[in-house]
Design goal:
The structure is a homodimer of 456-residue chains.
Chain A: H1 4-14, E1 18-19, H2 22-27, E2 42-45, H3 49-62, E3 66-69, E4 86-89, E5 96-100, E6 105-108, H4 114-121, E7 126-127, H5 138-143, H6 151-154, H7 157-160, E8 161-168, E9 172-177, H8 189-193, E10 202-209, E11 211-212, E12 216-223, H9 227-239, E13 246-250, H10 252-262, E14 271-278, H11 280-296, E15 300-305, H12 308-319, H13 321-327, E16 333-336, E17 339-340, H14 346-360, E18 364-369, E19 374-381, H15 384-403, H16 419-426, H17 428-441
Parallel strand pairs in A: 2-4, 3-4
Antiparallel strand pairs in A: 1-2, 5-6, 6-10, 7-11, 8-9, 8-10, 12-14, 12-15, 13-14, 13-18, 16-19, 17-19, 18-19
Helix pairs in contact in A: 9-11, 9-14, 10-13, 14-15, 16-17
């Protein structure tokens, strides 16, 4: 809780950009996770790096928690003010500062969203591939090391951040990385900040890799007799080194949901949604090989999305799976899971997970970036008992992923939810190293406390 | 200097695996840099992680420097024992522990060399692409965030380490990352250790990404009327998004040197050496597009290396450029430079650098991973005066790269040589953060002290 003196001090410093109203605080105390809201004591709408610097320095001096906030689309409770404090809303820092088309780089402020960026890039024949579904801010995506549907070809935020600026306690601006494509200059601080979930500093500028818009894009849906067959087809595609741009699984439940929501009339069976990028010849060749591999697993009915509009519809169906599924059960919330395993273990991991889900009888759907070995089961729950059931299933799913050499979090991060799993996955020495780094860079523990690991 | 008691204690613990002989110490006090040797006080041939753990714990307790040692091919003085101490030779830890062909991953001990690994993988239709030229150990390559000729397509050690184990002070084994292709589980400690040059811990195990051997490989040399034209051709290839596997520049001086050494009879003009990976159709298409782009810049005489043997000869010429150049001037040493700039600034950076080199009249040659914006000028020097000249040229080259938004080190690391440049590139706050991390993880400062930054 802020003291009265602290509140007045903040108001004096930041004027009308600071909000203490219940509605604004409430709106900044929630995300897309299943946690009850935890509003901050105050919200600052930052407009410049200098203001971020002032806020970080103030919080460090006053020992007040500071929580960076973007689009609020986290699924793991990242932005909840569990220890109160000041929420730093960065959405007004939304300038695209510099597009270097010749170098395939762009420099943005952290509040720029991926859709905003791609709208701006389109005319230049470029795009930024990382697509977690939600129209998240790039600062938030860097903070959680986000990835999504295109990662199988283009990598995650880890591979696509060249350079960043961040404000760290006690109040200094760090510059990490360079616009050069590679560098061996010192510790990789940019990679340390990417995925640190706001617990070390506030990102104020990002320089990202861009890619030329592919000459040819083709997308298709393919149906399979079972999820296992769809997953197996994906595995063979990856193992044969085909540079597929997207390879997404959606199960029959998810297809039913998007059909109901958007009248898409898709056949209600497990599907892979595929996208191919390349030259016309290259795409044709990839398509032929993938068709053959899919057919071997019983894949049928390649439905081609030939036009950009048809392609948009296809991916909209994928992206709307989450929302559409929630609409199928009035009053429900979705408990979303996120594990990633080596590709050879994917079929086993999905199979066993779904057998357990079926046995429990809880409504669920599956979507997955299966080309990376990453998948999500969403459980649609309406009360505390079901939540407990879903949690138990989620827990067994994580345990299974860890047994299969995988990770407890493919792309959603640790946040509040997965701290015990992180300890299990990484082990005590790695956790101790993370805590030591945290203590060295944020000695008063004010940066998004309680996330990744509990305050020590 | 070790005390007599410490020497005896080490001998008791490690028996004949510890060497105090002058010749062994001498051999472990040098690398490929131009620094005079700085031998350690003792050398331990480690054979197990348990021994590494014992050595790190001992050095931490006794406040004795510990220097990890692999193939000794560093170009920046990384393995020199500038503060004395114990050299930990890891070359006997050279087991390939596990090849997971279905997942395209391999787990190795740090002393495995890249040639050893690729020899082992070939039968399985797989390869590990990172190729810095020297037959370095994979532990050393991870430590310096190495890259080389294939990085333009396959990335650097940063992108290709999935998981590692490392021993850190006071004496604990850290596990970072997982075999899953991606993960958002906590701070990216693997990326922090990759490129930390042994100053945080000793890598004892690496899990690396593998790639299927391409169905088709084609390689060619192309001649250009000038270096500027060759660089410009490379820039247009990269900007057009062609997934070229190698795009290497060698200048006429380097060609002359390899011709003299190996009687290759290559035309003595600036050249790009190119390699294409893909399907037969895909390779043909890439080749056609690159030929057209090269021709626009005056590129002539595509000499195709059609057979694997011809290809080996071509790349051997590239890899032997350094040694061949040294042979052209009896008694010389080579002062090698290494900068990386955004691709659009590459022509300018190379042009101005070579104009200065010509003006100085010092013998030099140029090789470059120009597809990444990375190039090296090697100065062949015989005495202190020339070394000073070369240092001044190297300094101006780094200053130029930094002015052009680039990095002072593309792939060789910081070591002893580039500490002032690192400060200039990253700035005081980033350096302070690196030092804080170092102090948090290595509180007694025993891990490879004096590298990356001076002991604080």
């Amino acid at each position: 809780m802020l003291t009265e003196a602290q509140r007045q001090d903040l108001q004096q410093r930041f004027g009308e950009r600071l909000s203490l109203s219940a509605s604004v605080r409430e709106a900044h105390g929630r995300d897309e996770s299943f946690y009850p809201p935890a509003p901050p004591d105050a919200v600052l709408m930052a407009e410049t790096e200098a203001e971020v610097l002032a806020a970080v320095a103030w919080c460090h001096r006053e020992r007040v928690p500071l929580i960076p906030f973007g689009a609020g689309t986290s699924l793991e409770g990242h932005v909840l003010a569990v220890h109160g404090g000041l929420c730093l809303d960065l959405t007004r820092m939304d300038a695209i500062l510099r597009i270097d088309a010749a170098d395939l780089t762009v420099t943005v402020q952290p509040g720029v969203t991926r859709e905003q960026l791609n709208a701006q890039l389109r005319d230049q024949g470029l795009f930024f591939p990382i697509d977690p579904g939600a129209n998240a801010t790039l600062g938030g995506m860097a903070g959680t090391r986000a990835s999504g549907t295109n990662a199988v070809r283009y990598g995650t935020m880890r591979e696509n951040v060249l350079m960043l600026r961040a404000v760290l306690p006690p109040g200094q601006v760090l510059r990490c990385g360079s616009r050069a494509r590679k560098s061996s200059a010192g510790y990789d601080l940019a990679r340390l900040l990417v995925g640190s979930e706001g617990t070390l500093g506030v990102i104020t500028e990002l320089t990202l890799k861009l890619h030329p818009l592919p000459e040819q894009v083709a997308a298709a849906s393919v149906q399979f007799p079972s999820i296992a067959a769809a997953v197996q087809a994906c595995i063979t595609v990856i193992q044969s080194g085909i540079p597929i741009a997207r390879c997404e699984l959606i199960d029959a439940n998810a297809v039913r949901a998007v059909n109901a929501a958007d009248h898409l009339g898709l056949p209600e069976s497990p599907m892979l949604l595929l996208e191919f990028h390349g030259s016309p010849l290259g795409v044709r060749e990839q398509v032929e090989r993938v068709q053959a591999l899919a057919a071997e697993q019983g894949g049928t009915r390649f439905d081609w999305a030939a036009t950009p509009e048809a392609r948009s519809r296809l991916w909209q169906a994928r992206h709307r799976a989450y929302w559409s599924a929630i609409q199928t059960r009035p009053g429900c919330r979705c408990l979303t899971t996120d594990v990633c395993v080596p590709i050879s273990r994917l079929a086993e991991c999905v199979d066993q997970t779904l057998a357990e889900a079926e046995a429990e009888g809880l409504p669920y759907f599956v979507v997955g970036h299966v080309g990376d070995g990453n998948f999500h089961v969403g459980f649609l729950i309406v009360d505390a008992a079901e939540r407990e059931q879903a949690q138990a299933l989620s827990d067994r799913m994580v345990q299974r992923a860890l047994r299969l050499d995988g990770s407890c979090s493919g792309e959603h991060g640790i946040g509040l939810h997965k701290q015990a799993y992180l300890l299990q996955e990484a082990g005590e020495p790695a956790l101790a190293a993370m805590r030591a780094i945290k203590a060295a860079l944020d000695p008063h523990g004010v940066m998004n406390p309680g996330k990744v690991f509990a305050a020590s």
